[in-house]
């Protein structure tokens, strides 16, 4: 057995002098272990030592600077991952996986998955379901995670050594997006939790990641991992939780958990003091609202958990109770070859439109939670400057000032622009409706999803058809972007 302490001590000394060569270290270790054993030991210790392995096999210190936003705007699903997925499909069904019985079964599987999600049915991920899920959902989820990580990176909250727990990792969309988002000199200790056959797909795709993205797949449930499956609902937590995590990912899994709130509440205990819990969900109504309900149940004034983004609470001590259907939209990806092949081989009636098996929309709901009080923007509302959305009933037909978070892109059909907004106090849906754009209010249109805007002199109206408040933005209204 190699003397790990000696390897660590030698590496700590040499890191100040030159790149660490495993062959050189062998000379300092009792018994002169083989360089390959030393190299593997360094890999296992690299995270704690803040070392990264270079292509030449030597190790150098990780930069202390946090990760900067990389300008994440993917226009296509990377070829390496697309080839890896097709390797799985070819191995399972042969070169013509997209035609014949296998193609028909994959298409029927995707149709069934879409229907199950739409109606909230339970989904069992056998081998076929996992492959169908990967074909249809992998590209969009790959793209979405990077846009969410931008919220953290813009404030320097992603370290170059990152311990990650990906709960319900599925076939790996968020994992691959995280890998490509981070710079090459980052070192990641990645733990995936996935009990289903999707783990087999995940294992293959993780083979395409770099040498400093060190992954372990735990084939267990989230409830078991967090100790929620005992007779009394509690049992011993699993070994991966012995050390805290810098990032907890819940990618498109909360809607499939029996008690998502209990899992999230327990998961926050596994966060490092400056760590983030990132939950991602599809943009459709039920899953997006379910995400927001779970967020609100966990992030209470008493819990010490706070919403970092996007729906920050602008009024101290307030909590929203509106529907919470809020999601971001980004540019579509190019249709990946595996989706195109499956779609082109589909048998259709003459009136059917092609594209049933294309899924390149990048639309997602998300929430980032933290326990250290950090928020994406440190902005607070005050009674002397603006009204609370909780009090909108008192202001119908009045003009008021509001501080608001922009929680949608334009929802209109092309006439008056409509944007969902919130301030953290609202119990009913609120929308900004721009009936006349001027140079004094055009900042609203250009503001990003999650931006904080100050609305001066907006007209509050009740929309009985929608059961919501419309705040009219017209030529008497000024909109300033307080935080982009």
Automatic annotation (TrEMBL):
Q: Which Gene3D superfamilies match?
A: Vaccinia Virus protein VP39 (3.40.50.150)
Which Pfam families has this protein been placed in?
A: DUF8157 (PF26486), DUF8157_C (PF26487), Methyltransf_12 (PF08242)
- Judging by the UniProt lineage, the source's domain of life is Archaea
All copies of domain Methyltransferase type, residue ranges: 165-276
- DUF8157 domain ranges (all copies): 4-55, 390-481
Name of the protein this chain belongs to: Uncharacterized protein
